[in-house]
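Readers of this paper often ask what the protein records in our data store actually look like. Nothing more is needed to write down the fold, since each code stands for a local backbone conformation. Below, we set out a record of this kind in full and without editing:
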Amino acid sequence: MERSFHQVIYGGFISSFGPTIIMLIMTSVLLYLWSYAILPLYIDKLKTSVRFKRKVIKLHRFWIGTRISLDIERKEKRRFNNIAFLLLASLAFILSLVYFENEGQKKAEKVISDHMAGENSSDSMITVIINENEKKLRFLGCGAKNCAGIEEKSNKIYYFSQDSGYSFIYKLDM
């Protein structure tokens, strides 16, 4: 059993799928509320209240001003908006990497604490041949070319090539 580059990428895709779906659902709900509830109320209020129109115009003039921008100003504002968007997208990407790193660390700590407490289930154990000796290890994980397992009694961590292969016992619970 070998984990190639594509399998590692696919594993990362699967672990990021849940948070991505949650973000898309939240964005959809917020956009729905904005377009079907908040914006129509705002427009109706603008149409009916002169006092509210004056407040909006005053706020608009305070933030944006009354002067008409030149082409070069609009171009530079557009450039700033593009750079700000790219910066926010990069920041979101980096924060997602931090999130997944922390999730992986929590899972690893749970695996080690379960191992130290002696809570090794039979489906988490693998049999590996290392230096012509058969070892029963708790499976820790695989990288692109190597895998790792920890021995139950000595707590030694063994790294072995995926090419050597390993076996595990699968029990079907009915």
The longest strand covers residues 133-142. The mean pLDDT is 83.
